[in-house]
Amino acid sequence: AKFVGVDLSKVQIDSGLKYIADLGLKNIELKHISITDIDKEFGKFDYIICHGVISWVPEHVRVKIFDICNENLSENGIAYVSYNTLPGWNMVRTIRDMMLYHSQNFADAREKIAQSRLLLDFIKESVKEQNTPYSQILEKEAELLSKQSDHYLRHDHLEEDNKQYYFNEFIGAANKRGLQYLADSSIASMYVGNMPQGVVEKLQGLNDIVKVEQYMDFITNRRFRTTLLCHKDVKLNRALNNDMIKNFTITFDIIPEKPFKDISLNSGDNLKFFYGGNTDNSLSTSSPALKAVLYVLAENRNNPLSYDKIVKLADKKLAGGHKQNIENELLNNLMNLMIKGYINLSSNVGNLDKVSKEKPNVITMAKYQANKTANNWVTNLRHTIVPINNFDKVAVTYMDGKNTKEQIIKKLLEDIKNNKFSVSKDGNKVEKEEDIKNEIEAFLEDTINRFYDNALLM
After folding, report:
1. pLDDT digit string (tens) for 297-334?
2. What are the boundaries of each domain within the chain?
3. What is the pTM (predicted TM-score) of this model?
4. Nearest-5° Cα angle at 286, 282 to 290
5. What are the b/e assignments for 223-244, b being 16+ CB within 10 Å?
6. How close are the terminal C-alpha atoms of the chain, in Å?
7. 34-86+166-231 falls under which CATH superfamily?
């Protein structure tokens, strides 16, 4: 695979080039150019990703983005474009307009952000005694924005350009440039069955997917979309069937109400399983086969399992001879769970079976980010951001797949003796050697378990 990235900011490109050089990557090329500099000679790509751009650039650049998604996309390629949407952005736009109005007399970007934060405080203070629908919405939005980073406020609310699209408007613009709607990056957001029953009955009669999803946006007040586009002449088949799932690995963030050792699968008892640990969102079943499947998935929440492996492990829990019942339960439930957004499908076969907690080895990218950057986050194997703390940054240095936990602890204790870092508890520095060792052991165990759960070990 080959990757090419472009950015108008030399600072961002130089930062990326340093990553590439330091990590010894050979298949990534970064170019300090404008989007408008890309032409047909740039080449064809199977995937084009344009995240957080099209809503924040002038009209001629927006048109160019659609052209690139057409002219530089391979025959069966997919373009991903994210953008702000209406009607959800209507209320956000009100606050954006207020922030722009209030900060217009300040030239310095940092001062604009500081003044915008003062405005948000003013809004919250002004409406807290009111009890109107408008004041409640305004207060909620101001509170939400107050918690965002300076970078977010500058990029999302203080940029000169901020274009919001109705979904049908965005797809109309894409159609004019030879593109068509393939899907949303979130299948669950496309599924009408996730809407209230009255809405389902009204919308199921429509056979135009763009119209259906536009009505759904109106009802849900959607404010952001992540749309997948492809060439207009590609024949699409959006029909989903159970056999498709067999080609992917599966993870399911689910927690059983009782440990496996405390239950009997064949008891006939109804057991609850909570989605993401949320007690308000659960699945219950008395089926021995389905319970076995759910316990397998719960025990492998962060380890992608193939369909066949799930069947095999669930059958083992039932002491063998139940594969057909297990397959029936899987096929009856997985599709529904997928379109509701509960399970994650991936082409990644997973590697947790090979990961050692005794000799933890942090993935190269995360190790580099922890050691060589000022970030308080790292990127995992699922391409998501995972927050890290100061202890993590120190421990990562020794988590190389060669050192055992005991050896890592020994090295960390040596660092403390050499005053490279110290340990605090409840705001007070820990002084006693035995107490320091106990704290380090607990910290390291927590780090290893979090890194294991978040796909940061290899």
Report:
1. 999 887 888 899 999 999 999 988 899 989 988 888 88
2. 1-33, 34-86+166-231, 89-157, 242-346, 354-453
3. 0.86
4. 75
5. bebebebbbeeeeeeeeeeeee
6. 21
7. Vaccinia Virus protein VP39 (3.40.50.150)
